[in-house]
Amino acid sequence: MVKVALVIGINYSGLHESKRLNGCVYDAKRVVKMLENSLGFSNDYIYLLTDENENQTTIDRIKKVMDDVKTIITRTSDE
Question: Is the dihedral angle over the CA atoms 73, 60, 62, 31 positive or is it negative?
Fold first, then answer.
C-alpha cells in the first residue's frame, strides 16, 4: 500500500497583518520532512500546498487543492 499525504500550510499572507497567521508554512514544511525521514513516505506521494506565492489568487489555491486531491485519488486507485 502506498502512503500518500496532502500537507497544507496557510498563513493567509494576503490578509491584513493583524489577521495573518505565523509559522503555518514553516510547520507544513517540517511535517513533510518528518513524513519522509521518520515515517517512510516517498516525496513523490507528498503534496504540499502553501500560500508562499502572494501573486496566487484564492481561486488558484482552491484549484491547486482540488487538483492535488484528484491526483491522489487517481494515483492511489491505480495501485
Answer: positive
Cβ atoms of residues 72 and 2 within 8 Å: no
Q: Cα separation of 21 and 38, whole Å?
A: 27
DSSP per-residue letters across 10-77? ---TTS-GGG--SSHHHHHHHHHHHHHHTT---GGGEEEEE---TTS-HHHHHHHHHHHHHHHHHHHH
- Phi first, then psi: give them for residue 43, nearest 5 degrees: -60, -25
Residue 57 has a pLDDT of: 79
The single-letter code of the amino acid at 14 is G
For the cut 80, the answer to whether the pLDDT of residue 78 exceeds it is no
All cell numbers assigned to 53: 506565492
